[in-house]
Amino acid sequence: MLLAASLLLKGLAIPLLARIAWLDFTTQKISNQNVLLLLCLGLGSLQLLSMQSGSWWDMGLSALAGLLLFVALFPFWAMRKIGAGDVKLMTVVPLLIGGSGLVVFSVLLLVSALATAMVVKNPLILPQGAFRLYVQHLDRKGVVPFGVPISLAAICTIVFQIYTNMMVLAGLSV
Fold it and tell me: What's the confidence (pLDDT) of residue 54?
């Protein structure tokens, strides 16, 4: 029952992550309110998993990963290479996906960040004229909405976690 409640909290984070991605893409802003909502959903989910397993290892690993990401990304924010919202989002995501999802998240983040950078630097590969003009505008401004690949990687990681847990609950091997 606790696992199902934890998965529900993670599932509730998916539309919020999609909203964050869209707002970051259109306004280059990630609000503190949305990040705090993700933090609450993540901590609630981790709390439920910790109660079920009887171990706080996953929560501790997630908190350590979040702290390390904050420390690593803070200098980039200070040099104005990355936005404060991106730093806050990256700090909260490990608490949302849990320590067991960090490897999957890291691989998906790498792939989605490379794809985003490629699209921003080469907007001619895009099919829509208006979308291409918007991305060219982002390129001229020197802005890359990193919240989009972060959110995309987190959504895919959560979907993968929900799928694997549902298969385990159904008694199927993954």
Answer: 86
